[in-house]
């Protein structure tokens, strides 16, 4: 030690912190105290559901029953530690968003990081960071005296190891303690995670030093020992237990020496502050507990403390402290000391009252509460201390002012250490009924069950990571989104897709299919497409389809190389055509015959149009695909118009690696809806089977031809070779606004698009050997199916209420809805995630409503009371959730779109009031309103850089919309809509240029 430090130590202004460590060693999931006691740390995510009213009373009663039975034997400690800080928020946001940033870089979309940057800037200073831990500590006091004395333990053959005594019996008792506690947490619907010893030690060190201690830098008992030795560290012998190895020789220094090596300084002007690692810290202890019959929940205390008040509160319960003998001894001691301190007389009276409660069957337990706070300067620390004093004064309900804290002035650093996991607090206990303890424990604090994900904002202004694709939490993935007009549903849809698209760990661009009726999908997909390098922009496409030949989508296309579709898709096509034919025939025999005809027509079409069929299509010059013609010429593929089959051209292109061009060539080979007319007239088997059948007095074949002709005329977009370039796209967005003019049209396009866009998603690799295709394609499809199985896949269906508007509830659901109902039950085995969005729960599939086939639920708000009541019944929403439902009135400036969030997890139900946040930059990057989208696209076309365009628009319109300026230009300056847009676009171009010049390196 240097001379200055020696002098400071002599004056009492500096001391070493190693003796303060509550832990001495660690092994697997256990930490040990210096005498060999076992410690387990749980991270508590809070109650999965928040409760009010009768539901809350029942949960507290469950907790009280557990606490009443647990407190029976000395030597066990249960400590709840709630930490509320500002300095942990940036680390939480970083750990949440950094995996998403890594994904963005891996999938070659690094510029999308601007979305996260803008979100973080928006949330800066508005959120706080909280963590809740439960620490179980079994001390050697649970053992008989002869076993816990080191000398006697050695004599009787009980093993000794680093960190003191290593007691097998103690570990067995601790394991039983853990099992009991975990069972109680499960019963209370509280989610938890057990920390391993290295993470637990890292947590303790970080709390003490107020800086990150990386777990990998910590050395534990057994770090140099084989995995086998770790699992059987002690072997039973005839005289007891013998260590397989010598822990003292093998292990690293104790944790106290590794973690508590900071010098502690004491400011000369304060006796209640200390400085540890650059932070000033103070500690306080509770000398008067909340009580008096009107104790307030712990959340009421939290609300009294501002987001920037750093504090750590530890509430410790000690087993055995409710014994009558314990209270009697404490009462006698208090009476003996009453002459020295009037407070001791009050303690004696209180113990008498508690003794009377116990006689009446009311469980009583001892509790110690301590608090620590920290800051970078003494002024802020003093403010924190004052705030804590004030908050505790009003926590409780006693006439004397509720709970009371006093600052620790003799050894403030020991008080700080006493709030760390594994510490056993010193000083007298406060005795109180179990019912009061159950109220003051912080179990109702809720935090996100996801360690990482896209940051949202909880109702308590906490950072709330959201990772919908996490398989560790959810058994299946069906996300339900309900919200009336203007409630923020479109923004939420966009945020959920981004959360799935950029989730941490993805190796490539996920497969996303988004069926929409409106602008939401177009805005998002247009922006994301710009994020890709130009050579890869075909991987993200969006179409606003119309019922015209230019947007043709052929129902009968097959996967690359296949001459007919897989059985499941073939069945869908046959059923669809059968439905076309029987649509007006009603029920009965005619309906059945027409469906049979439709099935046969489809099968015959693939036979006749295959490369061995007599109706096979041959080459012609495709004007709309000059790149296809160029690829044929470039690779020297010999073609003869009217003779060379399109299937063979596709095969040749495939052989030279032109996958996209081969897919386009195959479009020209596939049969189309008009081709079915020729199939009916030329197929001998069809003519023979149905020539004598009639429907409503008309020959069935004539009836079928007339029906198909009507379909062809009504739906030109379904009647030609596919024009949409989707074969090699990974993300496909379709806006059906122009083909959703009637219930019939909406259902038809929903159904066909769902099938077309999911080709290959539900094919089994084992089927490939049996499918009709040239052998050269089989390995390609096996590999593709394997990749699809392992890839992230999301199907998003927006505006589902359009599928059943105007339909009789007693009538069978439309076929699009029936297909969706089947998907809900089957997609789990194919790893597909579904996102279903609608304005009304009435229009969700019955499986969602009746069978609980959902995993995440986002309710943005429904105004009608009957609709709210229906949601409460369907989702078993608590009284707390019912209150949240009444507060969902649309986006709140500066906070986001409020929603009630439910998660149907493996561990139980999560229920949380949540704000779906999005920054102004994100709103401009993916506008959900038509006028803003048009401005954005026009500006991008002139500026060229979507990031710069969004920045310029954000700078000019920080609320994320230019609608008010558009209206002002039109109303006050008498501009037309186009003139107003042109003025704004020119301003945006000028702003973008200024930004470019001011930051040339970006």
Automatic annotation (TrEMBL):
Gene3D superfamilies: P-loop containing nucleotide triphosphate hydrolases
Protein name: Uncharacterized protein
